[in-house]
């Protein structure tokens, strides 16, 4: 962990890093003035400059410091990085130069890190602040990827849903309702799949953010394009696993309903539904880091399940708490954004239902298109925050259990060496 000897930061070099930490990749300052005197000053705790006149010294002795009236050389100003290495993050410092992001640790210790993510275990409250910092660090790529991913799956969902509505419009009203339900279900499934894949894509961007790198669209896509199929495989396996949990309970409920054993049916519902919720929640948290492992560690879907379980072990409740709070916050934001849009779409659908016939079909399709657009826009704003929180949780667990920070700091130092200006 980086530490400064002067917590007031008065020896800041003026471009986002201390004069003793250029190119250190977040480590403690090792420059010529690191924790020591400024040019022309005696070390801390030393006697005043030449307290004894030279004539009073023993023969051959040299004063420890030059007399006070001796001219001192002007301090050499720190070398600023080239203009093309400076970022657009204001006081935060350079975009691609490790060791120029100021932070204050929970214990009040000032720090320098390669990027906006501290390479150490993070507290619960820190993660929310850092997640917003990650989004501000590379907004074009993160929000752009979110919009493109969600938009692509929304178009696929509409391509399936609209023909179903058109076909159902020529049938009986109950068939039309089934067509509408099928269209909505297909669209919702596509949105869920898009959100899961997007989480895996964003974790690649967040991982490079920890090193102070800003991935472009092309670079981010190059990182994840080979992992899309494993991500889809993981999503399918997860869905089958959850389905396998539901099937025995569903079979029992159907059998009790057929035999009209309503007392047993009610008891099984009262017991089975909470059990399913607990199992679903437990497994969902246990597999939280599987997409991250697939993208960053290049594991397969099955190995990703095991890897996530290993990382979660001993931290289930903490992971659950952070994910649950994140979900509550994002749900409130989505509901706030969607409420006026939902009211407008509902009025449009109601007007079409009153008109009936072809008008009803047209308004139903228009309402679905508007719903898709609203879902994409709100998801593009909210989903990146949720995905960034999961990525930070993943990094935090690896910082705590595998000393990943050491490897990342070494990588940051290599980056600093490649980007350092020629001497």
Automatic annotation (TrEMBL):
UniProt feature, compositional bias: Gly residues: 23-38
Source organism superkingdom: Bacteria
Low complexity: compositionally biased ranges: 39-49
Region annotated Disordered, chain positions: 1-95
Keywords of the record: Membrane, Transmembrane, Transmembrane helix
InterPro entries hit by this protein: DUF7847
Protein name: DUF7847 domain-containing protein
Lineage: Bacteria, Bacillati, Actinomycetota, Actinomycetes, Micrococcales
